[in-house]
Write a structure and sequence with these properties.
Helix content is about 60%, strand content about 10%. The chain is α/β, with parallel strands linked by helices.
């Protein structure tokens, strides 16, 4: 047992051994269920299975993987489910099944032989309809639990021959004579085993008196069975027929069932030929994917590949072929998929994340974050999980993506992730973007398929992914596929003409046309041997699908329509609740639907065989029926999964279709809150906007406070999506709904300042009745202040900090976090006025408030704004210490967004002191964090940092590369101040590279942006510095008055900017001195350059000091004394 390890399964005990291997009782950590796990220890060349015949010895393992896939798709009440399969670390194949306990063999139970044989033959009929031969039917493989027969170990067997008789322990008694003589197992040999089992059920003995191997074999091959004990028994005719020596005399399953049950209808089997049709027309694509698979196995490098094409063109089949290869090669294979309904958060990542989590020792924080995607993660990893600290929506998203990216990055095992139906993916794409970058440097192969007619822009959204487009099959390929299904006659011209005309080369349609022809002509064999029609009928394949649905019993269709409305994956529990039936009877109906290929077994459950089948069912439901069905589904979900957050989004959708808008609104808001907590901001936005519409049109009115809270959430969500203007709009709506006047003027700001002074002097008693209103309004002010500073709107930022603080203090203890947040922000607000004494007062007050509050996001905010304040004053060491405290807390709580901000500011402490090595290290660390969380702004800011160092070190080629990357990312952000700074630096870079046209273009962009900025952030000094150096150099080179006019404009704005920020002083004085020299005022030039040098030395701004010294020597020929 120790050599056979599977992370997903914990082996509990050995429960049996046979010729093929060992069976264990095992715990499935992914589902929490007990399963039977069969470890196949027999060499593969000794195994017999359906797919083997078409395989060479070199690809037995791949063929076996395909066989496992077919077996796992089988679903019938009398057949045990094959749940999972794969290869263990030691390359041994395995598969898992339902664990049956307490169970007896068919010979041990007290049920009547007729009942037992009826169920056994039902199971065998199902298998044979799918061309699955059991191959090893015996009592040990037929269990009975609670009166229900369960057939197991079907489809696989040892290869047997006459020479093997002594080596077959316990199995020969049920093998047909022809198998001993070397003939392959068949439906007839399965029926022979049924006959022997039936004989034993009645007599307790074997018809050929089993004994030693050689004599027993002679009796089977040449003797006659002893039928005297069953003479006169009702089953005698059937049994004597089934144990006939000649296979042709044994009849069919249909005939045996008629004798046992009296009346039964069984459809003709053809599904396996259709399901296992030859893989045609995609050989080159599979070879390419196999090459990438080899790369992750051997070179530890992967890729992301998108497979595009229309519905039914064969995308999933191509992926399944590669999946078989990957399993055999020992790669971990995980799959996920998006759905049209997209009701669950990050749904397509659930299984991949769960599988990786099984093999990792997750930290408590990481486990808490991942639980948002895998709700049952605590059971899977068998550890209690605590909720992670709550963050803002944008920070929740960054933390989630970072956590998942690290989960993949830290994993060294070759992994293949299969993602189906990416055209329906939305919130999951952000994570995919991050993992695309990772796949190029890690043993990770991501393969996703999508309908390119529905989402043609997907490859452009997922830069870095390779795209393979699958086209329809050519006439030659259609002929090859047809031959694989019906034999040599499949390439007859009338057959190929019909298939080409009706399907237009779409593989799914080809199979559907073949199904219809087989129905119309009696069998697959008849298609090639009879005259085929020129056309099927008007309506083409759509009518073919409808024809297949018409083969369902009438009572089954409502169940399937209800299931189709729910989604492609079925939930039998919900269906049983809707139709007030037990699970077993529902499963029987689903099995009937699988008989006509409407459904298929998938991942231990049921799903529609193709989404087009589901679409065909829904087309027959009019609006009234859909409304009624939706109501029933919603009620059933509430009953089956009461109070489950997992189903809030689903319930919102179904109550909407049912016209129950109040319930829709309630669940939509609940679903939005969960989405925000998990970082699914776009999904949250959809739910919140819907609730807002329902309120505004009167369908589901909210209270005034609830509506204000809804508008606040919309503002926070838009902030999380980077849409600052809309975020601000909705926060203003929240203030209005909370009855708070928003007066963003200098007068309004002074009024709020006076009110704050009153609070500090009088400390009035807070409101006890309006705390919730003040909390909502105060939080809206937080967002408005943040957006204002981000957009360099100083007046609005200061006003909303003051207003938010006043509202929070009126709210009392209920608004304690908001009080601290706004108090910390006052340090920023007063610092840019500048009123440094007042700023220091609020800094002390913030530290007093934080003593009694355990709120990591607020604490890191305090350290961030204090760090910004201190660095703007050139207090590098103090600022660095404060920032490091914030980084420590942000790292512990997974606040990736705050980490980016803190590292960005800390980099300046190194940068302005000339410590370029640490500045670069910090920028690279920022870049790593930003890439892991797919943070566009963070990546842009990191490249700006690398650009600045390269410029100061004179590495202009590197600088150009970093500039191009930074510009690419900043184009996707709303950071106006950052964009001004970047464009100014890029202008100076091109000037130094002697590329004047490019330099002029970027300088004009930066100038235009500068006009709209105010002094809210010290780091904008870089932008002003670059613009001044660029235009002063042009003025010195040309003497053109137009450049002097631009310099004058920049200096006027820069003087205002420099007031709150000491670190701007050396640059300001340097620029004034340089301009004075160009105006031939050497005395002023000397004085200002000296002042600049003293200021730079006092602030330890090494690069500025050296630049001023060099400039003074060049202009004046002397270095001013400092």
């Amino acid at each position: 047992m120790n050599q056979f390890q599977l992370p997903r399964y914990r082996l509990i005990e050995e429960s049996g051994r046979g010729g093929m291997g060992v069976i264990y009782r095992a715990h499935d950590r992914l589902t929490g269920n007990t399963v039977a796990l069969k470890r196949v220890t027999t060499p593969l060349e000794r195994l017999d299975f359906h797919s083997r015949a078409a395989s060479t010895s070199s690809d037995f393992q791949v063929a076996l993987a395909r066989e496992f896939r077919i077996l796992a798709s089988l679903r019938h009440p009398n057949i045990i489910k094959v749940l999972d399969y794969g290869w263990a670390e030691n390359k041994e194949p395995y598969y898992t099944m339902d664990w049956l306990y307490p169970a007896q063999t068919i010979l041990q139970t007290a049920l009547s032989p007729s009942e037992l044989l009826g169920q056994l033959l039902e199971a065998l009929a199902y298998l044979h309809r799918r061309e699955v031969i059991h191959r090893d039917l015996k009592p040990d493989n037929i269990l009975v639990i609670n009166g229900t027969v369960k057939v197991l170990d079907f489809g696989l067997a040892l290869l047997h021959g006459q020479d093997d008789i002594d080596g077959i322990a316990g199995t020969p008694e049920y093998l047909a004579p022809e198998v001993f003589e070397g003939e392959p197992p068949s439906t007839a040999s399965d029926l022979y085993a049924v006959g022997v089992i039936a004989y034993r059920l009645i007599t307790g003995k074997h018809p050929f008196e089993a004994g030693d191997g050689e004599h027993f074999l002679n009796r089977v091959l040449m003797g006659d069975p002893n039928l005297s004990p069953i003479v006169g028994h009702p089953l005698e005719p059937m049994i004597s027929k089934l144990i006939s020596r000649n296979p042709r005399d044994r009849g069919t399953v249909r005939e045996a069932l008629l004798q046992v049950r009296g009346n039964i209808a069984i459809t003709t089997g053809r599904e396996s030929f259709l399901q296992a049709a030859r893989f045609v027309g995609r050989e080159a694509e599979l070879d390419h994917l196999s090459t990438i698979l080899d790369r992750i196995l051997n070179a530890q490098r992967g890729a992301t590949v998108l497979i595009g094409g229309e519905s039914g063109v064969g995308k999933s089949r191509l992926i399944e072929e590669l999946r078989a290869e990957a399993l055999v090669a020992g790669a971990r294979v995980a799959r996920g998929g998006a759905t049209r309904e997209s009701r669950r958060l990050f749904e397509m990542w659930r299984e991949p994340i769960a599988l990786l989590s099984l093999e990792r020792d997750l930290s408590p924080l990481d486990a808490g974050v991942l639980q948002a995607i895998v709700p049952d993660l605590a059971q899977i990893i068998d550890k209690p999980i605590i909720e992670p600290p709550p963050l803002e929506p944008i920070a929740n998203r960054a933390r989630l993506i970072d956590t998942i990216t690290r989960l993949f990055a830290d994993d060294k095992k070759p992994t293949v992730v299969i993602l189906e139906d990416l055209h329906w993916a939305h919130d999951s794409l952000d994570l995919l973007k991050a993992l695309i970058m990772l796949s190029h440097s890690h043993p990770l192969l991501i393969i996703g398929n999508y309908r390119d007619d529905e989402r043609p822009d997907l490859p452009h959204l997922l830069t870095g992914a390779e795209t393979i487009k699958l086209s329809r099959l050519s006439r030659e390929e259609i002929a090859k596929l047809s031959v694989s299904m019906i034999g040599d006659s499949g390439d007859a011209e009338p057959v190929v003409n019909l298939l080409e005309r009706e399907s237009e080369g779409n593989p799914f349609f080809i199979v559907e046309v073949m199904r219809h022809l087989a129905d119309a002509m009696g069998s697959l064999d008849a298609i090639g041997s009879s005259t085929v029609p020129d056309s099927l009928f008007a309506g083409g394949v759509r009518r073919v699908l409808e024809s297949r649905l018409n083969r369902l019993p009438p009572e089954t269709r409502p169940i399937l329509q209800m299931a189709a409305l729910f989604g492609r994956m079925l939930d039998p529990l919900i269906l049983a609740t809707v139709f007030k039936r037990d699970i077993a009877s529902i499963e029987m109906d689903l099995s009937i639907a699988a008989d006509v290929a409407v459904l298929e077994g998938y991942e231990g459950g049921w799903r529609f065989a193709h989404d087009k089948m589901r679409e065909a069912l829904l087309e027959n439901l009019d609006d009234t029926a859909q409304k009624a069905f939706s109501y029933q589904l919603a009620e059933a979900i509430e009953t089956t999964y009461p109070d489950s957050p997992e189903y809030h989004a689903t319930l919102a959708q179904f109550w909407a279709r049912a016209g129950e808008f109040r319930k829709e609104s309630w669940y939509a808001i609940k679903a939005a809150q969960r989405a925000l907590t998990s970082g699914a901001n776009q999904r949250a936005l959809n739910y919140l906007e819907r609730a807002s519409v329902l309120h505004e049109d009167g369908s589901a009115p909210l209270s005034r406070i609830a509506y204000a809270d809804l508008q606040l959430k919309l503002g926070q969500t838009y902030l999380g999506l980077g849409m600052l203007d809309k975020s601000s709009d909705y926060c203003r709506f929240a203030l209005e709904a909370a009855d708070i006047h928003d007066n963003v003027t200098i007068g309004g700001t002074l009024a709020q300042a006076i009110r704050q002074l009153r609070y500090r002097l009088i400390n009035p008693k807070p409101s006890e009745t309006d705390a919730e209103r003040y909390r909502i309004a105060s939080q809206a002010c937080e967002v408005l202040a943040q957006n204002s500073f981000y957009n360099n709107d100083k007046i609005s930022g200061i006003y909303h900090i003051l207003l938010g603080l006043n509202l929070a203090e009126r709210g009392g203890d209920a608004c304690r976090p908001q009080q601290l947040r706004h108090t910390a922000s006052m340090l920023l607000a007063m610092g840019v006025v500048p009123l440094h004494r007042i700023a220091r007062y609020y800094r002390k007050r913030a530290y007093r408030l934080i003593e009694n509050l355990d709120d990591p996001p607020v604490m890191t905010w305090l350290y961030l704004v204090e760090g910004v304040y201190l660095l703007g004053l050139g207090k590098w060491r103090d600022g660095e210490n404060v920032l490091n405290k914030g980084i420590e807390i942000a790292t512990k709580t997974g606040h990736i967004r705050r980490q980016e901000e803190l590292y960005t500011i800390r980099r300046y402490a190194y940068y302005f002191q000339g410590d370029f090595e640490n500045a670069n290290k910090t920028a690279l660390h920022m870049l790593m964090i930003a890439e892991r969380s797919a943070a566009i702004h963070g990546m842009g800011a990191s490249y700006v940092g690398l650009l600045g160092v390269s410029m100061r070190k004179g590495q202009l080629d590197d600088a150009q590369n970093y500039a191009e990357l930074a510009l690419m990312y900043y184009q996707q952000t709303a950071d106006r101040g950052g964009a001004m700074r970047l464009n100014a630096i890029v202008a100076l870079m091109y000037h130094q590279r002697n590329e004047p046209h490019q330099a002029a273009d970027y300088a004009q962009i930066a100038l235009q942006m500068m006009k709209d900025l105010s002094s809210t952030s010290f780091y904008l000094v870089e932008g002003y510095q670059a613009l001044l150096i660029y235009f002063l150099a042009l003025y010195e080179e040309t003497g053109s008055p137009k450049f002097d006019a631009v310099i004058d404009l920049i200096l006027k704005r820069f003087k205002k900017f420099a007031k709150p920020f000491k670190i701007a002083q050396p640059i300001l004085h340097m620029a004034i001195g340089w301009r004075a020299y160009l105006h031939h005022d050497n005395q002023t030039a000397f004085a200002m350059l000296q002042k600049a040098l003293i200021s730079a030395q006092d602030l330890n701004m090494i690069y500025e000091r050296d630049y001023i010294i060099a400039l003074s020597q060049r202009l004046l020929g002397i270095i001013p004394p400092a």
